[in-house]
C-alpha cells in the first residue's frame, strides 16, 4: 500500500474555492503535514485509537487496490461519457434485422441481470448496468427497446415494493437498495401500453417479411408477452385479501408456457452463431451467445456503497430461465392456496411451500398475502382463527377482541407467520428467539386467566358471555403452539445440516420429548372440540357437526404419535450402538457431550421446554440402552403400525401420504437394521435420510 | 492431483507471533489462500491486540501455515474468535491446522474464554471435519454469508463450566416419568 499523499504531493493541490470553509475554519494546505507524517510512519503502520475496532479495521480501504477501491477500475467516468463515446447507440444498428437481434440480446441479458439481482446482488451492478435502462428517454424512437426498458423498470419497482413491504429481506438488505438510481416514475401503464402496441406491429410485420427476419421476429413475439404477463401477475398478487390471485394465476400460466417457447426459440437464435464454443454458450447471458451492447457493470460503482463493490458473476441465460420457471411455480403455489381461515392449514401450507426452498420474491409475496393489517389474509383476526381451531365461536364476544392477552397473541401470531416465510437459516434463528416470548406470554396469561377464574361470579357465563371460557381454552391451546414452534426449530436443524451424526442421539431424544408433549396437547384439543360439538348438537338438533375437522385433528394426533415412536426408537437405537462401541461418542479434547447439548438446545431450555434438567434426563435414559433391549423394537413396530393405519386418512393429501409412507419405511428399515446389529456387532453403521428428511435410517455394512 | 510435500511431522516448528518480521509472512499466506481481501489494518488489529493468539508453522524455515484470532466480550460472555486459519496446499491433511488452532484455543481457555466461535463455508468439508473433531458444533447457518452467495456455518465450542456441587433435585419421580413415557393409545 502506498501512503496517502505520496502521489498527491507531486501534483499541485487545488481546492474548490466555491465550497465555503465555515464560520470558525479556513482552508489550509495539509500536504506538508501529511508528508511529515509519512516520514514518521512506516508503510502500513497505524495509530491505534481506543475506538479502533474490527469494523473500523475492516472498513479501511487500500487505495488503488482493485479488490477494495471502488472508484479504481471503471471504463467510463459517467453515463454521459459512455453515451458520448457511442457505447450504447440508438438505433443499435442501421440494419433492421441486426438491430432487432441486438435488442433480443439486450433483453436476454437483462433477464439474467434481473435474476442475479433476485439472488441477492445489487440492482446497481445488475439491471442498472444497462445504459438503455438508465436512460430510457433516449430510446423513444425505438418503440420495442423503449417499451421494454420501461416495463423492466416497472417490474423492478414492483419487486422492490413487495420485498420492502414484506420486510422478509432478512440479510438480503442489498436487495432493496435503490439509492442513486433513477427509480421513480409511473411507467407501468405507459410501458405496458407501448409494449402491447409493439407486439401488434411485430405481428403485422411478421406476415410480410423474409424467412430469416421472420424467425427473429417470431422469437421476439414469443418472449415479449411473458414480460408483460409477469408484471401483470406481480400486480394482481398484491391486491388485498387475495382478490387478484385467480387472475394472477392466469398470467402465471401464460408466462410458464411462454418461457417454454422461449427455450425452444433458443436453438434458432444459436444457429446464427458459429464462432462461439459450446461451453461459452452454456455460460452465456444471452440465448444467442453474443455479448449484449450497452452494459457496463462498473458504471454505478460509486453508488454501491457502503460495501466495496465486488466482481459479481451473472447467472447464465439458461440458469436465469430456470430461476424464473421456479419463481413462477412458487407464485402459482401461492395462488392456488385456499385461504381457509384455518391455522393448521396455513402452517401445513407454509412448511410444504418451504420444501422447495423458494427464493426471496416468492416468499415476500406469500408473507404479504398471509398477513395484512394484522389479520390473516387481511380478513380474519387471529382470535377467530385460534377459537375456530377449538371449535369455539367468538362472534358474540366482541369484548375479547380488545383483551390485552388477545392483542398480544395476535402480535405473536403475526410474527410467527412472518418468520415462517423467511429463508430457513434465518427462520430457525428467529424461531429459537421467539420461543422465549411465547413461553413468557404463556406464563403471564396463565396467571391472569387463573385469577379471573377465581373471581368469576359465574353470573357472566349464565348471561351467555363465554369470554372467560374462551380465554381459558385459548390459553390451553398456547402450549400446543409453543411445542409446534419447538419441533419446527429442531427439525429445521436437519434441513440446514446443523447436526453431525454423533449428535443424532441427543437430537432425537429432544424431538421425542417435544413430539410427545405436542401429541398430548393436540389430543387434549380433540377432546375439547368433540365435547363442544356434542353440546352444540344436543342443544340444536339441526346442528351439523363438522366431522371432517374432528377427523383431521385426530389424524394429526396419530401422525404426531407415529413420529414420537420413531424419535424414541432412534434415540434408544443410537444410544445402544454408542454404548456397545459400534458408533462414535460425541467427545472432543476441550469439552464433553454436555456442552454440545447445552449449545444445541439452550433456547429450548430457556423457554422451559422441558421444565426439568434435560441433560440429566437425557443421560439417564440413554446410558443403559443395549441392543438386546426389547422395547426398542416395540417403538419401531408401533410407528410402523400407526403409519399403516393413518395412510387411509391421508389418501386425498398426496404430500402427507408420501410423508407417512416415508415414516413407515424408516420404521421398517430400522427394524431390519437392529436385527442385523444384534447378530453381528462388528458391523459398521451409518445413517441416511433416504426415506424422510428428519428421521434417519440405519445402514449397515461389513467392516 | 496436487503436489504433496514429503516431510516428517516432527520437522514442523510452531511458533507464537513474535513481531513485525512475521507480519508479511502471515499476509502473503492469507492473501494466497483466502478469497476475502483484508487491508493491512485488519492484520495489525489482530496481531497487535492478541499476539498470544497468533501462531505460525514453519517447515525448514518456510512459513507453511498460520492462525489469527481475537477474544473479547460478546453479549455477557467472554469469547474467543478464530479469524483466519491457513495451511498451504502441499502441507494439508497432516494435522498442521489442528495443531495451530489447538494452540490458540488452549490460550483462549487459559485466558478465561467461555466459548470460541468462527465461521466456515458450508462446502468446506475439511474445515468442518477439523473443527468437529475439536468439539465445535454447527450452531447456526448464515444465509448468503459470503459474497459469492455461499452460506456459512457459525461454529461454536463451549468450554465446560467450573464444577459447582449440585443439590439433588427434589422431584425425582416426575423426572423418571418424563424420561420415557410410553405413548398412550
TrEMBL record, chain A:
Taxonomic lineage from the root: Eukaryota, Viridiplantae, Streptophyta, Embryophyta, Tracheophyta
GO cellular component terms given for this protein: NatC complex
Superkingdom: Eukaryota
Protein name listed in UniProt: MAK10 homologue
Species per Swiss-Prot/TrEMBL record: Arabidopsis arenosa
Domain annotation NAA35-like TPR repeats: ranges: 334-698
Record-annotated NAA35-like N-terminal domain positions: 43-184
Cross-referenced InterPro entries: NAA35-like_N, Naa35_N, TPR_NAA35
Location of the protein in the cell: Cytoplasm
Alphabetized UniProt keyword annotations: Cytoplasm
Region (Disordered): 1-21
TrEMBL record, chain B:
Domain N-acetyltransferase: 12-160
Bias-annotated ranges (Polar residues): 167-177
Family stated for the protein in its record: Belongs to the acetyltransferase family. MAK3 subfamily.
Record's keyword annotation contains Acyltransferase: yes
Name of the protein this chain belongs to: N-acetyltransferase domain-containing protein
Keyword Cell wall biogenesis/degradation: no
Membrane-spanning segments: none
UniProt cross-references to CDD domains, sorted A to Z: NAT_SF
PROSITE patterns, per database record: GNAT
MF terms (GO), sorted A to Z: protein-N-terminal amino-acid acetyltransferase activity
Region annotation Disordered: where it falls in the sequence: 166-185
Species name: Arabidopsis arenosa (Sand rock-cress)
Key words, A-Z: Acyltransferase, Transferase
GO cellular component: NatC complex
Amino acid at each position: 500500500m502506498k501512503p496517502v499523499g505520496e502521489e498527491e504531493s507531486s501534483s499541485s493541490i487545488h481546492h474548490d474555492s466555491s465550497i465555503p470553509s465555515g464560520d470558525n475554519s479556513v482552508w489550509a494546505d495539509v500536504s506538508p503535514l501529511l508528508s511529515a507524517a509519512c516520514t514518521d510512519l512506516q508503510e502500513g503502520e497505524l495509530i491505534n485509537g481506543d475506538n479502533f475496532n474490527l469494523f473500523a479495521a475492516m472498513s479501511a480501504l487500500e487505495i488503488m487496490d482493485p479488490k477494495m477501491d471502488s472508484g479504481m477500475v471503471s471504463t467510463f467516468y459517467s453515463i454521459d461519457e459512455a453515451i458520448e463515446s457511442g457505447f450504447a447507440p440508438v438505433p443499435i444498428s442501421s440494419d433492421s434485422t441486426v438491430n432487432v437481434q441486438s435488442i433480443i440480446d439486450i433483453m436476454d441479458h437483462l433477464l439474467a441481470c434481473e435474476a442475479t439481482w433476485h439472488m441477492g446482488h445489487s440492482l446497481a451492478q445488475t439491471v442498472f448496468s444497462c445504459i438503455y435502462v438508465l436512460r430510457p428517454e433516449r430510446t423513444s424512437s425505438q418503440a420495442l427497446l423503449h417499451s421494454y426498458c420501461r416495463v423492466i423498470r416497472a417490474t423492478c419497482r414492483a419487486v422492490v415494493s413487495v420485498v420492502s413491504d414484506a420486510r422478509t429481506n432478512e440479510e438480503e438488505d442489498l436487495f432493496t437498495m435503490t439509492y442513486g438510481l433513477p427509480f421513480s416514475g409511473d411507467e407501468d401503464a405507459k410501458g405496458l401500453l407501448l409494449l402491447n402496441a409493439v407486439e401488434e406491429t411485430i405481428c403485422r410485420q411478421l406476415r410480410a417479411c423474409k424467412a430469416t427476419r421472420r424467425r427473429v421476429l417470431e422469437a421476439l413475439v414469443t418472449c415479449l408477452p411473458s414480460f408483460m404477463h409477469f408484471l401483470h401477475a406481480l400486480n394482481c398478487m398484491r391486491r388485498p385479501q387475495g382478490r387478484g390471485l385467480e387472475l394472477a394465476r392466469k398470467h402465471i400460466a401464460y408466462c410458464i408456457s411462454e418461457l417454454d417457447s422461449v427455450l425452444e426459440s433458443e436453438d434458432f437464435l444459436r444457429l446464427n452463431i458459429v464462432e462461439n464454443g459450446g461451453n461459452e454458450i452454456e455460460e452465456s447471458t444471452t440465448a444467442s451467445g453474443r455479448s449484449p451492447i450497452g452494459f457496463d457493470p462498473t458504471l454505478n460503482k460509486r453508488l454501491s456503497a457502503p460495501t466495496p463493490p465486488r466482481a459479481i458473476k451473472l447467472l447464465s441465460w439458461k440458469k436465469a430461465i430456470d430461476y424464473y420457471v421456479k419463481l413462477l411455480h412458487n407464485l402459482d403455489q401461492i395462488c392456488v392456496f385456499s385461504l381457509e381461515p384455518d391455522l393448521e392449514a396455513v402452517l401445513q401450507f407454509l412448511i410444504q411451500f418451504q420444501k422447495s426452498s423458494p427464493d426471496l420474491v416468492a416468499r415476500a409475496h406469500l408473507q404479504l398475502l398471509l398477513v395484512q393489517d394484522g389479520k390473516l389474509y387481511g380478513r380474519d383476526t387471529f382470535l377467530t382463527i385460534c377459537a375456530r381451531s377449538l371449535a369455539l365461536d367468538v362472534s358474540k364476544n366482541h369484548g375479547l377482541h380488545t383483551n390485552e392477552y388477545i392483542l398480544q397473541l395476535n402480535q405473536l401470531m403475526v410474527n410467527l407467520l412472518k418468520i415462517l416465510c423467511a429463508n430457513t437459516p434465518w427462520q430457525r434463528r428467529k424461531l429459537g428467539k421467539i420461543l422465549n416470548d411465547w413461553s413468557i406470554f404463556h406464563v403471564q396469561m396463565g396467571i391472569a386467566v387463573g385469577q379471573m377464574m377465581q373471581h368469576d361470579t359465574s353470573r357472566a357465563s349464565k348471561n351467555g358471555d363465554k369470554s372467560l371460557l374462551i380465554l381459558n381454552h385459548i390459553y390451553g391451546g398456547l402450549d400446543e403452539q409453543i411445542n409446534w414452534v419447538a419441533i419446527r426449530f429442531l427439525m429445521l436443524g436437519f434441513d440446514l445440516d446443523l447436526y453431525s451424526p454423533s449428535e443424532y442421539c441427543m437430537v432425537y431424544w429432544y424431538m421425542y420429548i417435544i413430539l410427545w408433549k405436542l401429541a398430548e396437547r393436540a389430543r387434549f384439543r380433540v377432546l375439547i372440540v368433540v365435547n363442544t360439538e356434542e353440546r352444540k348438537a344436543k342443544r340444536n338438533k339441526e346442528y351439523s357437526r363438522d366431522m371432517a375437522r374432528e377427523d383431521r385433528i385426530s389424524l394429526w394426533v396419530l401422525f404426531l404419535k407415529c413420529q414420537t415412536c420413531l424419535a424414541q426408537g432412534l434415540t434408544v437405537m443410537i444410544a445402544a450402538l454408542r454404548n456397545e462401541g459400534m458408533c462414535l461418542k460425541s467427545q472432543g479434547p476441550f469439552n464433553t457431550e454436555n456442552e454440545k447439548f447445552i449449545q444445541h438446545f439452550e433456547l429450548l431450555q430457556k423457554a422451559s421446554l422441558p421444565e426439568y434438567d434435560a441433560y440429566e434426563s437425557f443421560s439417564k435414559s440413554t446410558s443403559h440402552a443395549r441392543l438386546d433391549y426389547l422395547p426398542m423394537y416395540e417403538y419401531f413396530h408401533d410407528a410402523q403400525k400407526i403409519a399403516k393405519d393413518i395412510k387411509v386418512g391421508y389418501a386425498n393429501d398426496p404430500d402427507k401420504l408420501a410423508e407417512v409412507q416415508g415414516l413407515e419405511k424408516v420404521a421398517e428399515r430400522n427394524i431390519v437394521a437392529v436385527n442385523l446389529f444384534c447378530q453381528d456387532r462388528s458391523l459398521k453403521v451409518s445413517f441416511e435420510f433416504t426415506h424422510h428428511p428428519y428421521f434417519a435410517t440405519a445402514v449397515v455394512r461389513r467392516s | 492431483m496436487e503436489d504433496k510435500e514429503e516431510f516428517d511431522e516432527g520437522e514442523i516448528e510452531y511458533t507464537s507471533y513474535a513481531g513485525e518480521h512475521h507480519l508479511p509472512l502471515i499476509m502473503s499466506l492469507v492473501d494466497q489462500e483466502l478469497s476475502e481481501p483484508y487491508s493491512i489494518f485488519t492484520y495489525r488489529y489482530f496481531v497487535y491486540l492478541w499476539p498470544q493468539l497468533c501462531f505460525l508453522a514453519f517447515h525448514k524455515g518456510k512459513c507453511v501455515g498460520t492462525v489469527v484470532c481475537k477474544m473479547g466480550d460478546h453479549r455477557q460472555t467472554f469469547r474467543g474468535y478464530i479469524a483466519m486459519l491457513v495451511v498451504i496446499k502441499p502441507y494439508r491433511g497432516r494435522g498442521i491446522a489442528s495443531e495451530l488452532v489447538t494452540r490458540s484455543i488452549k490460550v483462549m481457555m487459559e485466558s478465561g474464554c467461555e466459548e470460541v466461535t468462527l465461521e466456515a463455508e458450508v462446502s468446506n468439508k475439511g474445515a468442518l471435519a477439523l473443527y468437529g473433531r475439536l468439539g465445535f458444533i454447527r450452531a447456526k447457518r448464515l444465509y448468503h454469508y459470503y459474497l459469492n452467495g455461499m452460506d456459512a456455518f457459525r461454529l461454536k465450542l463451549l468450554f465446560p463450566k467450573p464444577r459447582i456441587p449440585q443439590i439433588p433435585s427434589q422431584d425425582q419421580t416426575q423426572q423418571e416419568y418424563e424420561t420415557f413415557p410410553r405413548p398412550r393409545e
